[in-house]
Amino acid sequence: MSSARSHGPDEHPTELAELAAGRVEYRFERRGPNTVVVFYGGHMRAGLSLGEEVFAEAGCSVLVPSRPGYGRTPVSTGGSAAGFADVTAALCAHLGITEVAAAVGVSGGGPTAVAMAALHPALVWRLLLQCAVGPLPWPDRRIRLGAQIVFAPRAERVSWALVHSLVRYAPDAGLRMLLRDLTLLPVRDAVAGLRPEDRARLIPLFSRMRSGRGFSRDLKELATTEDLAGHAGQVSQPALVIATRQDAAVRFAHAQALAGALPHAELLESRADSHLIWFGRDWPLIAEQIHAFLTDGPSRTSQQR
Fold first, then answer.
1. What pLDDT score does 3 carry?
2. Of 165, 157, 164, 189, which is closest to residue 176 (Cα–Cα)?
3. Closest Cα to residue 227, out of 42, 85, 66, 126?
4. Is residue 299 scored above 70 in pLDDT?
């Protein structure tokens, strides 16, 4: 059973699926026979998108589920990264998807993508991780304490209403506030490095973000690393790990740990100024490598050997 949802400006329409494990919100954009599944991180849901153009250019369909606690997916659906990986595999079956060209994990969505690749190797061909949380403690104590207050379920609506107003009516101040915890550079330099087209994409995105109950759940679940480390060691598929050394939200050490734990991983270093690698000046070159990874990688037969 599925139901459509009306959507606001700068947001994609989503659907609901009622599965055995619970309700899940998702967006499925059909383009071609190959499908990538994208797990976004904190404050993102299925109706929002970031950096998906590279998948469209590769002719891939895109399936984006809202992780537990985000959008219209209840926090009870899945319960853990591994549990939601199973839910997403069931969603693929529900939609008639028998092969996933890549499980894509972005930031806090990384552990779910790793779990899906590990637990469903017959379904998932490749693993793509972008500024993803790895098998290290996350986040640091200062960010955790602040986030537990600002993004708590009872406070996040007010917190985001203030953020939304700020980025709309005082965009420079809003961008400085939001990028402060995403970059290791002086925040004014990071904001000054944004091109007009970057601002035109970031401001609507920040104006639509919400945390729901999802970010509080992430803070609890991602505080432990044992499951992620175990799943990473089980991944038999090719993996591409992308990160920047200027990331303050998910430090570069996470990417290094992931590349070390995944048996068949390549680490690709971005030169971006912040966690938002899609706005780095070298993103076109990275996008080319993602395209090649998706289309020129090992055949399914060679992966199964």
1. 52
2. 189
3. 85
4. no
3-state secondary structure of 221: helix
CA neighbor of 123 nearest in space, from 138, 101, 91, 145: 101
Tokens, residue 34: 């190959």
CA–CA separation, 25 vs 70, rounded Å? 9
- C-alpha to C-alpha distance for 144 and 178, rounded to whole angstroms: 15
| pLDDT value at 79 more than 60 | yes
Give the chain's mean pLDDT: 92
What domains are defined for the chain?
2-138+224-304 (3.40.50.1820), 141-206 (no CATH)
Condensed to tens digits (0 to 9), the pLDDT of residues 141-183 reads 777 887 888 888 889 999 999 999 999 999 999 999 999 999 9
> How big is the CA angle at 7 (ends 127 and 37), to the nearest 5 degrees?
10
Please give the order of strands across the beta sheet that includes 265-270. 2-5, 14-19, 22-29, 61-65, 35-39, 102-106, 127-130, 239-244, 265-270
pLDDT of res. 4: 54
For the record, the structure tokens of 129 come out as 């991780």
Residue 154 vs residue 4, higher pLDDT: 154
Helix (H, G, I), strand (E, B) or coil at 61: strand
Q: Give residue 74's pLDDT.
A: 97
Question: Quick one: tokens of 233?
Answer: 């060691």
